[in-house]
Amino acid sequence: MIRAEHIVKAFDGRTVLDDISVEFETGRTNLIIGRSGSGKTVLLKTLVGLHEPDSGRVCYDRTDFTSLGFGERKAIRKEIGMIFQGGALLDSSTVEENVRLPLDLFTEQSEAEKRERVDFCLQRVRLERANRLYPAELSGGMIKRVAIARAIVMNPRYLFCDEPNSGLDPQTSIVIDNLIHEITHEYGITTIINTHDMNSVMEIGEKIVYIHEGHKWWEGTREEILHADNAELNAFVFASAMAKHAKQAVR
Fold first, then answer.
1. Count of CB atoms within 10 A of residue 169's CB?
2. Which of 37, 75, 102, 230 has the most neighbouring CB atoms within 10 Å?
3. Rounded to an integer, what distance in angstroms lies between the CA atom of residue 172 and that of residue 144?
4. How many Å apart are CA 29 and CA 196, to the nearest integer?
5. Within its chain, how far is the Cα of 132 from the centroid?
6. CA atoms of 210 and 196, how far apart (whole Å)
7. What pLDDT is stored for residue 224 in this prediction?
8. What is the pLDDT of residues 111-129, one digit of tens each?
9. Average pLDDT, the chain
10. pTM score
11. Where on the phi/psi map is residue 24: left (φ > 0), alpha (ψ -120 to 50), or beta?
C-alpha cells in the first residue's frame, strides 16, 4: 500500500498539486488519469520521490517515506520497479544487460544467479530468445516488455508505470496492459499507472484516480466511471474516446 496525505506541490509559485490524499492498494492496478497539465505526472514523481512535496507526506505501508533522508530511502527504493514512458533502455547494451542492470547495481549475486533471474524475467514477459538482441532490433512492444522485465527483476513490492502504452498500437497496448495486470496480481505488487489511455482504464482500472487542475476530482473503479456524476470526468472520458476513434479512423 502507498498512501499520499494532503500533498501540496508548487513550481515557481504555481500550485500543481493541491491537498491530494489518496491510498493506492496492494495487489491491484491503480490508475492515475487526467488531462495533460493536470498534475498527474507530478503526483507520480512525488510518490516515487523524484519530487519532494511542499507539504504533506507519502507513506509506503507503515513507513513515512517523506521524512526519510536520502540514504534511509535506499531500502525502499530497492523495492521499487519503474517502467518509463519510452522504455529507457540503454542502446549500447543487450536485452540481457539491460534487464540485469538493477542486479549489478544493488545486489551481490553471482553471475549464475543473475543469469537465472534475468532468464526467468524474460520468460515471464515472453521474450525467451531475446537475450542477445539490442534495443534497435526490437519493436515498440518488445521494448516495453524488456522494460517490464527490468522493472520486476528485483522482485519489487511497488511498481510505477509512466504512460506504458505511449506510442503503441491498440493490440500491443492490450498485451502490455494484460502483462502488467497479471504481474500485479501474481506477485501482490502495489502498481500505480499514469495514463491517458481509456482502453487501459476500462480493461485493468481496478482503482482509478482522476486529477483535475491539481485536485483529486474523483476516484472509483472502472465499473463506476461510466456512471459517475462528475462533469469534468465525463468530459475527459468522452474526449478520450473521441480521440481514440479519430486515430483509428486515420489508420
1. 15
2. 102
3. 10
4. 15
5. 26
6. 10
7. 93
8. 999 999 999 999 999 999 8
9. 92
10. 0.91
11. beta
With cell 482504464, the residue in question is 201
For residue 199, what is its C-alpha cell?
482502453
Residue with cell 517523506: 66
Give me the DSSP letters along the chain: -EEEEEEEEEETTEEEEEEEEEEEPTTSEEEEE--TTSSHHHHHHHHHTSS--SEEEEEETTEEGGGS-TTTTHHHHTTEEEE-TT----TTS-HHHHHHHHHHHH----HHHHHHHHHHHHHHTT-TT-TT--GGGS-HHHHHHHHHHHHHTT--SEEEEESTTTT--HHHHHHHHHHHHHHHHHHT-EEEEE---HHHHHHH-SEEEEEETTEEEEEE-HHHHTT---HHHHHHHHHHHHHHHHHHHH-
Q: How far is CA 146 from the centre of its chain?
A: 14
